[in-house]
Amino acid sequence: METESLVIRQARIIDPSRDLDQVGDILIGNGEILATGSLGSDSIPDGTRVIDGTGLVVAPGFIDLHCHLREPGFEYKETIAAGSRAGAKGGFTTLCAMPNTDPPIDNAAVVEFIQQKARQDSKVRILPIGCVTKGRKGYELSEMEELASAGVACFSDDGDPVFDANLMKLALTYSSDLGLAISNHCQDKSLSCNGVMAEGPVATHLGLDGIPAAAEEAMIARDIALAESTGGRLHVAHLSTAGSVPLVREAKDRGLSVTAEVCPHHLTVTDQWVLGGKGASASVAGSLAYDTSTKVYPPLRSLNDVEALIKGLADGVIDCIATDHAPHDLTSKQVTYQDAAFGISVLETALGSLMQLVHESKLSMVALVDRLTLGPAKILGESYKELATLQPGTTADIVIFDPEHEWTVDTSQFESKGKNTPLDGTKLKGRVVATIVGGTIVYDGPGLQFQAEKGRA
Ligand code: NCD
Ligand code: ZN
């Protein structure tokens, strides 16, 4: 299929796959990247549309290893169509869809249903994730080989942990043969019990049951031991505590095949936000109010945790950022904190909130792009690296963003059906201008400036 040709002029091109961070042009045609660098007029075919990239960053499209698109089964929370529009608006060109759907993604037919739906409805690439266990129930392994042949990106029972250590051991054993990671939602439920937020002073203040850090760390430690004994490929989903970082660091130092992801909210929001004052302390918030849009698993934690996660991400112990986009309907959140569903709608705010780390010099722009592109691609495997580079001759999956654009989050403008975010009404600095999948512009946002077509000026 022939797609139009486009040239983005004078943008800051960041391509971690080639250690590239320089101002230049990028030419796209036939769905591929044709050239990058300083392109003379002669090398641009007539009829090429010209985008003014001045002040903008161009990077490989973001890859999200962890999101919930809710289809099939929970279309009132999200659909592949709406979730893909939200992803495109957030700069994501590939979304890996978690299998806590109804039916769950535990057989090839459901994988094929999602692939088919994605072909019809999606603006971005959708990679289904297969269940580790049948029905995501935790008692019997799924047909992992059948799922792998059908094309799943990895395996996970996300929403729930693989609690049975022997099943996790078996899954890890198969993971190396299949070449696909096991992404575990590490939560020892005998420790988290009825907890609804992080254990600590805010939980005590509100009289809510706390979730100790050990609920996560104990299972990560168990899984690392199992990865060591099997040689399997372990991926830690939504790592959230300061204590989890050294566990992953030591596993990597021992040469184990262990990777980890962290979510934007765990890098930027603390448990103070549960009080409803958008980060203001209890004395300022002054009441026993709470904001159920802050309820998420793993829970938002202390500033100490947030800082440790940022450091772990910056130094590469944490391989990538994944959104854990978990859209919910209004009624799942307009209830008491205990009863509210866990989850935050993240796709459309991810870049803006993460850019805060860059503006505050806690993370370099190149590292941020790496953790959203090459980092996740490496976890998916060799064949996906093609989606995380601006190398000429590869697929044109590209994001263009304005790192300085200030905007106010307004969930009524979200493409996602999930309006559940504590960031509603807050100001962010950094916004996607355009998203390109396979050479086609799938999102065209504020700030996209076309110049006259080449040859028709
Ligand atoms: C996720 C969901 O809603 O499916 N919720 C969440 O709080 N993260 C499940 C999950 O990722 O564990
Ligand atoms: Zn989870």
CATH class of the largest domain: Alpha Beta
Task: Compute the CA-based radius of gyration.
Answer: 21 Å
- Mean pLDDT comes to 96
Query: Which band does the percent of strand residues land in?
Result: 15-25%
The CATH homology group name of the largest domain:
Metal-dependent hydrolases
CATH topology of the largest domain: TIM Barrel
Give the number of helices.
Answer: 14
Chain oligomer state: single chain
Instruction: Provide the list of bound ligands, each named once.
Output: N-carbamoyl-L-aspartate, zinc ion
Characteristics of this structure?
alpha/beta, 21% strand, binds zinc ion, single chain, 28% helix, 457 residues, 18 strands, 14 helices, binds N-carbamoyl-L-aspartate, 4-stranded parallel sheet
In words, what does this structure look like?
- Helices cover 28% and strands 21% of the residues.
- With 457 residues, the protein is an alpha/beta fold.
- It has two domains: 6-57 and 397-451, Urease, subunit C, domain 1 (Roll); 61-384, Metal-dependent hydrolases (TIM Barrel), CATH 3.20.20.140.
- Strands 1, 2, 3, 4, 5, 15, 16, 17 and 18 form a nine-stranded mixed beta sheet that branches.
- Helix 8 (244-253) links the parallel strand 12 (234-236) and strand 13 (258-262).
- The chain is globular.
- The protein starts with 5 loop residues before the first strand and ends in a 6-residue tail after the last strand.
- The structure holds N-carbamoyl-L-aspartate and zinc ion.
